[in-house]
């Protein structure tokens, strides 16, 4: 999730218990997955992964985990490894400009950090508030009970109803780790979601988060003030996003967040280094289908600094966006042809600004009195930014302290479009530098109502289809594990591990 709302909402004790239980399953594989038996088909010789972000690096790791180190893994990346996990440099310090926060229940990401010997970045506390363009409608304090009282005073029982709704969704979602630990995989997103939460989860991709919250008793005022602010900070979109995507974003807004010391992108480079994947710095232009002696294989065409080239593969995993008009991958020799997917991606602009905050704009003429490290916003026409936060470098020493509001600090501002100079002058009294990155970070969830396929053809997989259910680092890792298992199960014809029903009962009987 691109941004997170710090803990205005109370923690969920059952989620912590669930984390303890589920953590025991991560990274453990049944003995059946240690190696193929003598009667099985020969393992694939070469596998291509297109995209070197968190999805591509995760799936390369999981593919090697299942197929073994003898498989050659080629990872195509046209830019830099990490994709939407990226940093910028300000005064010789690096700061997250892409995916910044990871939820405590992100068990695959937790496992990657342990596997790679990385560390959690030390958290530097800071208070948050929600701004409506004229005043703060909700302010966090240093006192937990006072925060709860303010929530109750302004919104009644809405925050508790929200907490119960999100907790129920997350509790069911956590089943995926047990399913994957037992080798089960899913050929369609609808089947995966149904295995976790039945028809409720599938329906949550078709109705808005606002509809779902109103149904469980959350008030419209709470939605307009708090939920809108969370979704603007997370997805840069409104409460018309699907309920499942909204629940994932709200879950990442309830505190218990962490990041990787040195930058979250280190997970991507670390996984690719661990798998000894061959990283090909090139743009994939086409994938063509070939058949020989009843066997399907693929030719991946690409362009690099030396010109055009191609290689043949047994399995191809696409871990980049196919919905985006900027993606020019064509599919050749497919009958029927690979269909184009409806929907576009939403542009989020991240501005990393090194400067002095104009606290007067927020009603604090004396900058020393401005108490907030993070400002979220409501959906107000006059507001030209979604959120802003005083960010810390990716490497934090033991003596590090957050800059005081009257000092020059590094701020990360999310907006729908690049900020012009007058808008920057509204937010900052003066500034030394501005670094702007335009991300197509998440789908525009209102632009398509159908979930794209995971399987495009035999042994051709679309990992990023998961983003149309919900987008985050952990969702990409979950999808990567599913695709790796799916590829393994299909390759060795273990169909009993694909799209099985009543998985909770099956898993219990396998314990």
Helix content: 25-40%
Alpha-carbon distance between the two ends:
33 Å
Beta fraction of the residues?
15-25%
Return the average pLDDT rounded to an integer: 89
Radius of gyration: 23 Å
Shape estimate: globular
SS element count, helices: 14
Low-confidence stretches: 1-38
| Class from helix and strand fractions | alpha/beta
Overall number of strands: 21
Keywords: FAD, Flavoprotein, Glycoprotein, Oxidoreductase, Signal
Family: Belongs to the flavin monoamine oxidase family. FIG1 subfamily. Belongs to the prenylcysteine oxidase family.
Signal peptide: 1-24
EC number: 1.4.3.2
Structure overview:
The chain is α/β, with parallel strands linked by helices and 511 residues long. The protein starts with 12 loop residues before the first helix and ends with a helix. Helix 2 (54-67) packs parallel to helix 11. The protein contains 14 helices and 21 strands. A hairpin with a 2-residue loop joins strand 20 (455-457) and strand 21 (460-462). The chain is 32% helix and 24% strand. The chain has a domain at 89-96 and 122-166 and 218-259 and 345-443. It has helices spanning 13-23, 54-67, 107-116, 144-155, 158-173, 175-181, 189-203, 209-215, 220-234, 243-251, 265-275, 421-427, 473-491, 503-510, and strands spanning 46-50, 72-77, 87-90, 93-96, 102-103, 127-131, 136-139, 257-258, 278-281, 283-292, 295-304, 307-313, 315-318, 330-332, 345-357, 372-377, 387-390, 409-415, 428-443, 455-457, 460-462. Pfam families: NAD_binding_8 (PF13450), Prenylcys_lyase (PF07156). Its cofactor is FAD. Its EC number is 1.4.3.2. Residues 138-500 form the Prenylcysteine lyase domain. Belongs to the flavin monoamine oxidase family. FIG1 subfamily.
């Amino acid at each position: 999730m691109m941004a997170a709302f710090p803990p205005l909402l109370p923690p969920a004790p059952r989620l912590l218990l669930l984390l303890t239980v589920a953590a025991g399953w991560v990274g453990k594989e049944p003995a059946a997955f240690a190696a193929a038996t003598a009667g099985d088909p020969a393992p694939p010789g070469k596998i291509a992964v297109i995209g070197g972000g968190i999805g591509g690096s995760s799936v390369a790791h999981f593919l090697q985990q299942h197929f073994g180190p003898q498989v050659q893994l080629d990872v195509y990346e046209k830019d830099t490894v990490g994709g939407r996990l990226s940093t910028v440099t300000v005064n010789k310090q690096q700061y997250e400009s892409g995916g910044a926060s990871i939820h405590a229940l992100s068990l695959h990401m937790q496992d990657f950090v342990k596997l790679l010997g990385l560390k959690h970045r030390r958290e530097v506390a800071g208070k948050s508030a929600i701004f409506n363009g004229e005043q703060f409608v909700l302010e966090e304090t240093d006192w937990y009970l006072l925060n709860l009282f303010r929530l109750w005073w302004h919104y009644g029982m809405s925050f508790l109803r929200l907490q119960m709704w999100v907790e129920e969704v997350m509790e069911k979602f956590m089943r995926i780790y047990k399913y994957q630990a037992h080798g089960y995989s899913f050929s369609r997103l609808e089947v995966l979601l149904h295995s976790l939460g039945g028809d409720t989860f599938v329906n949550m991709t078709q109705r808005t988060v606002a509809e779902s919250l109103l149904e469980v008793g959350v008030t419209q005022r709470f939605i307009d003030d708090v939920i809108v602010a969370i979704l603007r900070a997370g997805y840069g979109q409104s409460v018309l996003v699907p309920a499942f995507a909204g629940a994932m974003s709200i879950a990442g807004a309830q505190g218990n967040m962490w990041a990787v010391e040195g930058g979250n992108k280190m997970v991507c480079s670390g996984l690719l280094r661990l798998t000894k994947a061959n990283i090909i710095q090139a743009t994939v232009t086409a994938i063509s289908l070939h058949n020989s002696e009843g066997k399907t294989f693929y030719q991946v065409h690409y362009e690099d600094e030396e010109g055009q080239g191609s290689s043949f593969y047994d399995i191809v995993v696409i871990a980049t966006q196919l919905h985006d008009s900027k993606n020019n991958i064509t599919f050749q020799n497919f009958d029927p042809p690979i269909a184009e997917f409806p929907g576009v991606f939403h542009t989020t602009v991240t501005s990393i600004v090194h400067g002095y905050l104009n606290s007067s704009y927020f009603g604090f003429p004396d900058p020393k009195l401005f108490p907030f490290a993070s400002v979220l916003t409501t959906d107000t026409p006059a507001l030209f930014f979604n959120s802003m936060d005083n960010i810390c470098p990716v490497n934090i020493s033991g003596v590090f302290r957050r800059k005081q509001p009257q000092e020059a600090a590094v701020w990360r501002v999310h907006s729908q479009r690049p900020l012009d100079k007058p808008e920057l002058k509204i937010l900052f009294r003066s500034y030394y530098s501005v670094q702007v990155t335009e991300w197509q970070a998440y789908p525009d969830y209102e632009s398509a109502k159908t979930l794209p396929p995971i399987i495009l053809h035999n042994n051709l997989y679309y990992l990023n289809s998961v983003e149309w259910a919900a987008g985050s680092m952990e969702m990409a890792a979950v999808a990567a594990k599913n695709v790796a298992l799916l590829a393994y199960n299909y390759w060795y014809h273990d169909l009993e591990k694909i799209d099985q029903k009543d998985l909770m009962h099956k898993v219990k009987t396998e314990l």
